[in-house]
Amino acid sequence: MICDFGLARVADPDHDHTGFLTEYVATRWYRAPEIMLNSKGYTKSIDIWSVGCILCEMLSNRPIFPGPPLPGPAESHPIRAGQPARNYLQSLPYKPKIPWTTLYPEADARALDLLDRMLTFNPHKRITVEDALSHPYLEQYYDPADEPVAEEPFTFETELDDLPKEELKELIFQETEKFKTGAPPAAAPAAM
């Protein structure tokens, strides 16, 4: 289970939530290029990028794109300086892509293929959630008959709830218990 505490945004095709889109929707190390470039029109493909970064960590035990830990003025420099001129971008030297096999020589070829499709720079060419779930690397876990779907759409009012930390932890615990097979619900862990 991958959780997002306070950075998630509503994705509702019946309503326009573009006013709520922000570049602060992903932890820096997992942030998709379109967010780093201050795009306001991102899609769920940003989550695919983030999961690709997590897959990299699973293959190497370290982040692929570690960044500065501190927020602040450095994060806003693209906004303050404006967008770079096209001719400047085209003048930058070409840097060939490092093959995934070089970075992860022990990894399964199918994992590297999935990784390549997840960490595609162009978000429109990035693998979709559905295609990623049915990718050969995940085939042993994929069961189209067992794909959880929300029972009802999330409402914007739910997004505004400001739950206390302990209540949020309890709700996450209860949700994960639903996915355990054959085990009765256990008591929530003690507060820290």
UniProtKB/TrEMBL annotation:
Matches recorded under InterPro entries: Kinase-like_dom_sf, MAPK, MAPK_ERK1/2, Prot_kinase_dom
Residue ranges of every copy of the Protein kinase domain listed in the record: 1-138
The protein, known as: mitogen-activated protein kinase
The entry's keywords: ATP-binding, Kinase, Nucleotide-binding, Phosphoprotein, Serine/threonine-protein kinase, Transferase
Keyword Flavoprotein part of the UniProt annotation: no
Entry's transmembrane regions: none
Keyword Repressor: no
Cofactor(s) in the UniProt record: Mg(2+)
Lineage top rank: taxon: Eukaryota
GO molecular function, one term: ATP binding
EC number(s) from the headed UniProt entry: 2.7.11.24
PROSITE patterns: PROTEIN_KINASE_DOM
Gene this protein is translated from: Mapk3
Family: Belongs to the protein kinase superfamily. CMGC Ser/Thr protein kinase family. MAP kinase subfamily.
Entries under Pfam families matching the protein: Pkinase
Organism: Amphibalanus amphitrite
